[in-house]
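Sanity check

After download, print the first record. It should look like this:
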Amino acid sequence: MIPLRRRGARGTAVAQGKRMSAEDSERRTSSVPAAAPSSSRSTHREIEIYAAESLARFGAPGTLCVEGGELIWYAPQGVLREPLGDLDQSWSALPEEGRRRRAGELVRRLMSRRSQLPTLRPRRRSGGWVGAVVLLGAVALGAAYAARPDAPEPEVSRRAATPGGHRSGVVEGTADLPGERERAERAARVCAGARARVLRGGTIGPAETEGWIVDLLLLSGDTSASLHDHPALGSFVSPVETGRLASFVWQEEPELAKLSGPGTGVELTPELVEGPSGRRATGLRLTFRGQLVDPYFRPEERVRYFHVANALSDRLGATHAGLVARCDHSATHHVGSWFRGPSPADAATALVYLVGLYAEPPHLASAFLRAGTAGDPHAPGGPGPSSLDRAYAFAAIREATRPLDQAHLAALLGNSGGMITSSAAGSVITFPFTDANRASRASREIARAVHVGAD
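Expected C-alpha cells:
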C-alpha cells in the first residue's frame, strides 16, 4: 500500500498541487539557514514515514515520498502533490505528537483532492485456459521426473539464514533434524529477552526478530459463513495444504509476495467469539512467519502490513480487526500497531480485546474474565484465553466501550501516542513505530476509563 518510493521515481499522470512562488522560495532561502544535506534527507525520510502511517489509517493504496519541497502521493490512478510549506524547516523542533499531527494534515489535504484522480477500471484476466494447460503439463512433467529411479530425494525444509527467517516453532519436516529443538529453544529465549525490552518501552529492530511472529486477527458478526472459507481469501494466500504454510501471494504488495524461504508463509486458524445476544462472531487469525516477519519491525515497511490488514478486512467483511506481534512460544500479544472497527467505539473494542485480554496479566478486571479450560491460559506456552474467556470478554468490552466517541477516544489515546481516524469505511487506531509498548498502555487506560479494567 504505502511502500516508500525511491527518489527520482516519476508517475505517469500528475495532478498539480499548489506550488511555492519563486519569490517565496527565494525569501525562505535567504531567511532560513540551509540544512546539511544528510540532515535534510533524514527529515524527509521521517516525514515520509509519519505521512505513510496517516495514509494507512485511510486505507488508501499508493506510494509516498518527499521531493522538491512537496509530499507526493503516487496512487494507482495517478499522482497528487502537496507542498510541505515550512514543515521540513520546523520538523526537528516539533514534539512527536506535533510531527504526527502536521504529517496527518498534509495527508488529509491530499485525500481531500482524491476525486481529481481518474477511476480505476477493473483488470481483465487473460490466458485462463492456456495457463491451466501449462500448469497441468508442468504437474505431469514433475510427476514423471519424481518417478524416475535416479531422481533426488526432496530437500528437507531448513531454517533461513537471515534473522527474519527464524521461527521458534519447528518448521514442517524439520522436527527430527539434529539441533532443531535447540534452535527453537534459543529463539524462544531471544524473543523473551526482546519482549522484556518492549515492556520497558524499547523498540525491536529487524535484526532482533528471531522467534517472533505477526498475527492479523479478523472477526465478523456474520454467522452464515466462516472467514476461513471466504472465497476472497484466495487473492491473498495460496491454497493451504495439510500441515503446511500458505504462501502470501497478494500482488498489490509485491515486496511481501516475493519473500520466500523455509518456514516463510502464512498459517490460517479459525477464530470463534460469541458476541452479544448470543450471536457468534466467526473470525480468522493469519499468522505470518519467517521472512514475512521482518517488514513488521521496519518503520518504513510496517505500513505494508497496514495495507494488507485494511484490504483483508474489507474483502472478507470483518467487523473488528487487529495487527499484533508476539513470541512464537507465547499466547501473549506483545506489539500492537493497528486496530479497526465500524466506529470509534468498535475500534476501541478491537484494541482492548486483542491486546488487553491477551496481555500478561490481562488488562480486564477479574469480574469480566472466566477461567480457562486448560489451566492458566496466560502461562508461557499456554493456549491463551479459552473460547469461553473470549466470548465473555468480547461482549463485556463491546458493551463498555459503546459510549466512546471520537473525541473522547482521541483524548484517551493521546497519552500513548495512538491516533484514531474515521471514514466511511470505519475507524482505525494506529500507534507509532517507536516504543513498542504503546498499544498495551492504551489498552489498559481505555479499559480503566470504561470501568472494565484491572486495578
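If your output differs, re-run the checksum step. Summary of this record's structure: The longest strand covers residues 265-274.
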